[in-house]
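Open question from group meeting: does this chain pack into something compact, or does most of it stay loose? Before anyone orders reagents, we agreed to write out a predicted structure and look at it together. Recording both the input and the output here so the notebook holds the full record.
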Amino acid sequence: MPQYLRIAEKIYQNVKEKKGFRDEPMEDLNNLMIELRHELKGTKLKLLYNYIDFAELLIKPLQESKIKLDLSIIPKSKNTQEFVLWLAGFIERITTGGQEKLPPIRAKVVLPTYVYDETYPSSANPINNGEEIIEYFKKKES
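C-alpha cells returned:
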C-alpha cells in the first residue's frame, strides 16, 4: 500500500497545481486518470483497463457495470488526506504488477509446547528469540 499512497499523493498534487479540482466527478476523474497514466510510465505497474467509462460507473448500479468500481464513495477533494487514501485504494484496484503483499508467517511461528516438567530451560526459545518475526515486520514494501 505505501507505493500506492506515494503515487496518489503525487497525482493529487499534480492535479491540484495544474488544473485544480472542479468538484465535478467526471472531469476530476478524467484529470486523475491522465496524471495516473503519466505517473505509471516507466514503472512495473500497469492499468488493468485501457478505457474506463466513468459516466456509466456513476449512473448504472454496480451490479450492471462491466468494471466493478464503486465511485459513489469519492470524498471531496478539499479533504486532502481522505481523498489521497481513497485515490490510493482506487489505484490499487485498477492496476496490476505492484509488489505483492508479504507472505504469511504462520509457518515460521512455532506453537508453544506446554511442558510442565523441567525439560526446557527458561532461557530457551523455540522461535529463535523472535528475530525472524521482528525482521518480517521491519521489511518495507517498496
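Observations to bring back to the group:
The chain has five helices and two strands.
The mean pLDDT is 78.
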